[in-house]
Design brief:
It is a single chain. By secondary structure, this protein is of the alpha/beta class. It has eight helices and nine strands. A nine-stranded mixed beta sheet has the order 1-2-3-5-4-6-7-8-9, with helices on both faces. Helix 7 links the parallel strand 8 and strand 9. The two termini are 30 Å apart.
Amino acid sequence: MAGAAWRPDILGPGFEQLTLPLGSDNEGEVVATLVRYTPGPDFGLHDRPARRTDVLYVHGWSDYFFQTELARYWHRMGADFYAVDLRKYGRSLRAGQTPGFVDNLTTYDEDLEAALSVIGHGQADHPSRSLILMGHSTGGLTLSLWADRHPGRAAAVVLNSPWLEFQARGFGREVFTPLIGIGARVDPLRVLPNVDLGYYTRSVLKSKGGDWDYNLEWRPERGFPVRPAWLNAVLAGHARVAMGLSIDAAVFTMVSARSTIAPVWSEAMRSSDIVLNVDDIAMRAIKLSPTVTIARLEGALHDILLSRADVRRDAYARLTRFVRGLAL
C-alpha cells in the first residue's frame, strides 16, 4: 500500500478515508475504502470502557458507511473507530462495476485483511489493543463467518440485525437454493425480479419521513439489482450458520422486537424490521458462539441505529453495558 494516503472524507470534519487496492477482476480495478473518525483529543469526563479498543464496522447490502452518530458513540467510549466500504459499494464502487457483486462471501477476506492491516490487527501483527467487529445485515453475516474462520482475532462481534437466515426460513432456503445455484452457473449476473418496494427507504430517508440523509446512488431507493451468483453466496453463508459456528469471541446481537413484512405500506413499518424475520435471526444468532447476548428492541427498524432517537438511545445503552462486561 505504498504511496497510499488518508484524505478528507465526504462525511466532513473528523472523518478521513483511505483507498485499499485489491488488484483487479474482469470488471477492472478493485478497491475497498477505509474510513476513520479522528476528531482530536476529547477532554470530556466520559467513562471510556473501550479506550484500548479498535472498532471496525461493515455495512450491509446496497449500503455504505454514513452513520456519523455511530462513529461519535465509539469515540465517546474511548475506541478508535473505523468503517470499511467493501469492494463495489459506496466509496469503492467504480464505473462499469456490478454494484455489490461477489460470488463467494470469502472474497471479502481480502477487504477485511487489508483494513485490519492498516488498523494494526493484520495476520502478522501482535496488537496491544482489543478488536471489536461490528456489522449490519449482510455485513453481520460476512463478519460472523469471518470470525468463525479466524479465531483469536476479535474480542467481540457486535451484530446489528445480521442476515443469518433466508426470509423464507430454513425449509424455504433448502428448496430455493438448488434453483438459485442453477441460475448462478448458467447466468450468474442475470438481474432477478426486484422484491424491494422502497418501503425501507421510506422509513429511513428524511425526505420521506425518516431521520437520515444519504447518497441515493450508493444506497438506492429500491436497492441494487440482485444477481443469482451473489444470492447463491449468501444462501451458502446461511447454510453454514444453520450448521452452527464456533466464534471464540463474545457476540452481541441486536434485532427489532418484531417484523412487518407485507406488500402494502403501513405506518407500522416505521417501527419494525421490514426486511428480515427477526425471530429467525434471533434463533440463528444463538448458534454463533458459546457466548451470545441477544437484545430485542421495541420500535426498531431493520438497521437498529437508524431507528427513531429513543430506540437508538436504548440500543447504545445496551451496547455500552455489553462493552463494560467485556472488561477490555
